[in-house]
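Chapter review: from sequence to fold.
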Amino acid sequence: MTSGSKIGAALCILVLACSANASAPDATDTLISKLGRPAPARTAFAEARFMQLLDRPLVVSGELAWLGGDTLERHVTRPHEETARIADGKVTQQRAGKGERSFSLERAPQLKVLVDSFVALLGGDPGRLRQAFAITRRGDAGGVWTLTLTPRDLDVARTVATIRIDGKGALARCMWMQEADGDVAVDLLGALAARMPAAPTREALTALCQGQ
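The token string follows.
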């Protein structure tokens, strides 16, 4: 998967508060409309990336922010300092001790689709979101729920197979990004980020995300 697409998917889900009930499409649209948050929206995150070529997952943590419009930012504080920012149609990356680099979103059409779509999610716009993703939902109003986004665009689907949001009650707890090559990135959001295990496993993260 391209580094730009990884940046975009990690940046885009920040603060989601909702409940789940019936599975009818109109109910799902109502749910999505409740996900909108006024900018700026910030949340802590901790990410474990499981890669087939590595024996153990890569773990980073920091803060995600939606600053309004198409401006998104991911600031990593551990294990190193690094900031990625999407704004004005370009991606800018800055890492401590290294020079800044940037590239246009026009060079990464898959990332552009992801950014546009998740801005629609954060803005609570189900119509715009459905243009880019097939959306399914399961769960109940008082317990665990899951929202799954499957890209409609074949080029996007070649890099991102699905994006799954796990939550409980009125709180989104996790984002799972299943990459087409088999790698998986799991982001713990908000207060749950502080509970990232020192040596995370998929099973342990599933239990955390489902509130077990």
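Two observations follow directly from the output. The mean pLDDT is 80. Residues 118 and 185 are 17 Å apart (CA to CA).
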